[in-house]
Design brief:
The chain is mainly alpha-helical. About 65% of the residues lie in helices and about 10% in strands. It has six helices and two strands. It has a two-stranded antiparallel sheet. Helix 2 packs across helix 5 and helix 3 crosses helix 4.
Length: about 150
């Protein structure tokens, strides 16, 4: 007997674990969506911010490395690199080991854009936490955030 192609396989044999996974996915997704919605619409988009963040966290990359790391098509990355280079958010220099490649680095201006975006999101989140949660709930959320980080790093 073949399974119906319209029916997904169970998430977990443990129904409580499956429900927890759904709730965490939904909560994290909604929070991420809301924080993006609260950002400046005239600012850089998510793909640009992802590239800047990657360069900040992981250092210099070639365009191929960036495309692979961010799962971007080369054409999309070309547009992003043109945008960030034109605004001097990154530098693009020849690779001393291979003149056909270039090395991309974040600039202080790129770091400032990334920091401002983070500050905007955290400012909104801090206000929302303060107006929505009790001190006890904030302590529980602190613990939950530590657990989410552990799960993400697993």
């Amino acid at each position: 007997m073949q399974p119906d192609s319209d029916v997904a396989s169970p998430v977990s044999a443990d129904p409580e674990l499956a429900e927890l996974a759904r709730q965490v996915r939904e909560g994290v997704g909604r929070l991420n969506w809301r924080m993006r919605a609260e950002s400046d619409p005239s600012g850089p988009g998510p793909a640009v911010l992802a590239v800047l963040s990657r360069l900040y966290r992981a250092g210099t990359h070639t365009p191929s490395e960036l495309a692979a790391a961010e799962r971007l098509q080369p054409q999309s990355l070309t547009r992003i690199l043109a945008w960030v280079t034109g605004r001097e958010l990154v530098t693009r220099t020849p690779d001393p080991d291979d003149g056909r490649r270039s090395l991309i680095r974040i600039t202080p201006a790129g770091l400032a854009v990334l920091r401002e975006y983070s500050v905007q999101r955290e400012r909104w989140l801090a206000t929302a936490l303060d107006s929505t949660l009790s001190p006890t709930e904030r302590q529980l959320l602190k613990l939950a955030s530590e657990l989410l980080t552990r799960v993400a790093d697993a």
